[in-house]
Protein backbone atom coordinates (compact mmCIF):
# COMPACT_ATOMS: atom_id res chain seq x y z
CA UNK A 1 0.00 0.00 0.00
CA UNK A 2 1.40 3.36 -1.06
CA UNK A 3 0.83 6.37 1.19
CA UNK A 4 2.78 8.89 -0.92
CA UNK A 5 1.72 10.79 -4.02
CA UNK A 6 3.96 12.88 -6.26
CA UNK A 7 2.34 15.44 -8.51
CA UNK A 8 3.48 16.58 -11.92
CA UNK A 9 5.54 19.73 -12.22
CA UNK A 10 2.52 21.51 -13.74
CA UNK A 11 0.31 20.64 -10.78
CA UNK A 12 2.99 21.68 -8.30
CA UNK A 13 3.30 25.07 -9.99
CA UNK A 14 -0.47 25.61 -10.10
CA UNK A 15 -0.85 24.62 -6.45
CA UNK A 16 1.86 27.10 -5.47
CA UNK A 17 0.32 29.88 -7.57
CA UNK A 18 -3.16 29.26 -6.19
CA UNK A 19 -1.80 29.02 -2.64
CA UNK A 20 -0.13 32.41 -3.04
CA UNK A 21 -3.25 33.97 -4.53
CA UNK A 22 -5.88 32.48 -2.22
CA UNK A 23 -3.99 31.61 0.99
CA UNK A 24 -5.59 28.15 0.84
CA UNK A 25 -3.11 25.39 1.64
CA UNK A 26 -2.08 23.02 -1.17
CA UNK A 27 -3.89 20.07 0.44
CA UNK A 28 -7.20 22.02 0.52
CA UNK A 29 -6.65 23.12 -3.09
CA UNK A 30 -5.95 19.50 -4.03
CA UNK A 31 -9.24 18.39 -2.41
CA UNK A 32 -11.10 21.08 -4.35
CA UNK A 33 -9.38 19.99 -7.57
CA UNK A 34 -10.32 16.34 -7.05
CA UNK A 35 -13.90 17.40 -6.31
CA UNK A 36 -14.07 19.40 -9.54
CA UNK A 37 -12.67 16.45 -11.49
CA UNK A 38 -15.31 14.14 -10.03
CA UNK A 39 -18.02 16.38 -11.48
CA UNK A 40 -16.80 15.45 -14.97
CA UNK A 41 -18.55 12.35 -16.32
CA UNK A 42 -15.69 11.08 -18.46
CA UNK A 43 -13.15 8.71 -16.88
CA UNK A 44 -9.74 10.07 -15.98
CA UNK A 45 -6.57 9.07 -17.76
CA UNK A 46 -4.31 6.93 -15.59
CA UNK A 47 -1.37 6.99 -17.98
CA UNK A 48 2.14 7.51 -16.66
CA UNK A 49 2.84 11.11 -15.60
CA UNK A 50 6.00 12.89 -14.64
CA UNK A 51 6.57 12.96 -10.90
CA UNK A 52 8.71 16.07 -10.62
CA UNK A 53 6.28 18.00 -8.44
CA UNK A 54 5.31 18.09 -4.79
CA UNK A 55 5.20 14.94 -2.68
CA UNK A 56 2.19 14.55 -0.41
CA UNK A 57 1.37 12.11 2.33
CA UNK A 58 -2.02 10.45 1.88
CA UNK A 59 -3.27 11.64 5.26
CA UNK A 60 -2.30 15.22 4.43
CA UNK A 61 -4.37 15.14 1.25
CA UNK A 62 -7.45 13.27 2.36
CA UNK A 63 -7.37 13.45 6.15
CA UNK A 64 -10.43 12.09 7.89
CA UNK A 65 -12.24 12.10 4.54
CA UNK A 66 -10.11 9.35 2.98
CA UNK A 67 -12.99 6.86 2.86
CA UNK A 68 -15.27 9.53 1.41
CA UNK A 69 -12.81 10.29 -1.40
CA UNK A 70 -12.35 6.58 -2.08
CA UNK A 71 -16.12 6.05 -2.22
CA UNK A 72 -16.62 9.04 -4.53
CA UNK A 73 -13.87 7.87 -6.87
CA UNK A 74 -15.26 4.31 -6.88
CA UNK A 75 -18.71 5.71 -7.66
CA UNK A 76 -17.20 7.76 -10.48
CA UNK A 77 -15.58 4.57 -11.86
CA UNK A 78 -18.90 2.76 -11.38
CA UNK A 79 -17.12 -0.21 -9.83
CA UNK A 80 -15.27 -1.32 -6.75
CA UNK A 81 -11.65 -0.21 -6.61
CA UNK A 82 -8.78 -1.58 -4.57
CA UNK A 83 -6.87 0.59 -2.14
CA UNK A 84 -3.78 0.30 -4.33
CA UNK A 85 -5.74 1.44 -7.37
CA UNK A 86 -7.32 4.34 -5.46
CA UNK A 87 -4.17 5.88 -4.03
CA UNK A 88 -2.07 7.25 -5.55
CA UNK A 89 -3.29 6.21 -9.04
CA UNK A 90 -6.89 7.35 -9.39
CA UNK A 91 -6.63 10.08 -6.77
CA UNK A 92 -3.64 11.57 -8.58
CA UNK A 93 -5.37 11.29 -11.96
CA UNK A 94 -8.33 13.25 -10.59
CA UNK A 95 -5.97 15.78 -9.01
CA UNK A 96 -4.16 16.28 -12.32
CA UNK A 97 -7.40 16.81 -14.24
CA UNK A 98 -9.03 18.88 -11.52
CA UNK A 99 -6.14 21.28 -11.03
CA UNK A 100 -6.64 22.47 -14.61
CA UNK A 101 -10.30 23.17 -13.86
CA UNK A 102 -9.40 24.91 -10.61
CA UNK A 103 -6.77 27.10 -12.29
CA UNK A 104 -9.25 28.01 -15.03
CA UNK A 105 -11.88 28.92 -12.46
CA UNK A 106 -9.40 31.21 -10.71
CA UNK A 107 -8.41 32.84 -13.98
CA UNK A 108 -12.07 33.34 -14.91
CA UNK A 109 -12.91 34.83 -11.49
CA UNK A 110 -10.06 37.30 -11.75
CA UNK A 111 -9.37 37.60 -8.03
CA UNK A 112 -9.30 35.45 -4.95
CA UNK A 113 -12.45 36.88 -3.38
CA UNK A 114 -14.64 36.04 -6.38
CA UNK A 115 -12.88 32.70 -6.80
CA UNK A 116 -13.48 31.62 -3.22
CA UNK A 117 -17.07 32.80 -3.29
CA UNK A 118 -17.73 30.78 -6.45
CA UNK A 119 -15.79 27.64 -5.49
CA UNK A 120 -17.21 27.43 -1.99
CA UNK A 121 -20.77 27.92 -3.25
CA UNK A 122 -20.50 25.02 -5.71
Describe the 3D structure:
The chain has 122 residues and is mainly alpha-helical. The chain has one domain: DNA sulphur modification protein DndE (Arc Repressor Mutant, Orthogonal Bundle), CATH 1.10.1220.160. The protein is 67% helix and 5% strand. The protein has 6 helices and 2 strands, in the order E-H-H-E-H-H-H-H. It has a two-stranded antiparallel sheet. Helix 2 crosses helix 5 and helix 5 packs across helix 6.
In short:
With 122 residues, the protein is mostly helical. The protein has helices at 9-22, 26-39, 58-62, 66-77, 83-109, 112-121, and strands at 4-6, 55-57.
Per the CATH scheme, the topology name is Arc Repressor Mutant
| DSSP helical segment count | 6
Indicate the multimeric state: single chain
Please tell me the CATH architecture by its name.
Answer: Orthogonal Bundle
The side-by-side strand order for the widest beta sheet comes to 1-2
| Overall SS class | mainly alpha
